[in-house]
Design brief:
Number of domains: 1
GO molecular function: 3-deoxy-7-phosphoheptulonate synthase activity; aldehyde-lyase activity
Shape: globular
CATH topology: TIM Barrel
Strand content: 15-25%
Keywords: Transferase
Number of strands: 10
Number of helices: 9
EC number: 2.5.1.54
Radius of gyration: 17 Å
Enzyme class: transferase
Bound molecules: phosphoenolpyruvate, manganese (II) ion
Protein name: 3-deoxy-7-phosphoheptulonate synthase
CATH superfamily: Aldolase class I
Length: 264
Amino acid sequence: LASRDFQPNDTIIDIKGVKIGGDNLVIMGGPCAVESAEQMDEIAAIVKAAGGQVLRGGAFKPRTGPYSFQGVGVEGLEMMAEAGRKHGLLTITEVMTPEYVDVIAEHADILQIGTRNMQNFDLLRKLGEIDTPVLLKRGFSATYDELLNAAEYILAGGNPNVMLCERGIRTFETYTRNTLDLTAIPVLQQLSHLPVISDPSHGTGRRELVETMSKASVAAGANGLIVEMHTDPDNSMTGDGVQSLFPDQFTSLLQDIEKLAPLL
Ligand code: PEP
Ligand code: MN
């Protein structure tokens, strides 16, 4: 079902009038983690003013170690939903377990499946039973075929609203957190009709590379970007402050992309 042979035309996911896929470029921005209602309100205002369409933020965080901040949980979903409503933005947040799919789907417009859960098949099957759009991140060691097979689980269950996300893979390089695989963008679009979103924040792990790799992703044909941005990245509650843009960087990035997109 994910294959271009099966469906030649691009899938376009329409969420409350925001179209994702085809010639549209969607911008998702916000902090790694939801921290407070004030933070989400402030960041949503910046995303909206800059021209973004979707507010990101994790209420449930898949942390590498068990003693790190795990997210604020269900309360965070409400904080994010409220900020999205107030500022006219869609919202995206991560879901890690099948049990939480329904409650998170009540609060968010898009469900994010993190890199560590790309092959959590019980979770994928559960996502197939609803129709809320899903952003499926590529596992950091997954091949294109494995990513497409993971998407297939959701599609086969009956949910056609799947976006693929390249968020960097593990390579021998240690300077960057991951290696953003730009080639994945055109390859996935050739193999599949599903929209492909690029995450240059996790893909590089370094703020100073996010702007360039965002532009490179758009040039490579990405259908959208998901970018971390924080008002005080050095004091963010996850380690991802180092890859989060400052608000003025986020705003100028979107201005540059607006100029770039029509040239492509
Ligand atoms: C995130 O988006 O903050 C995140 C945890 O992403 P990933 O699953 O790609 O590491
Ligand atoms: Mn993050």
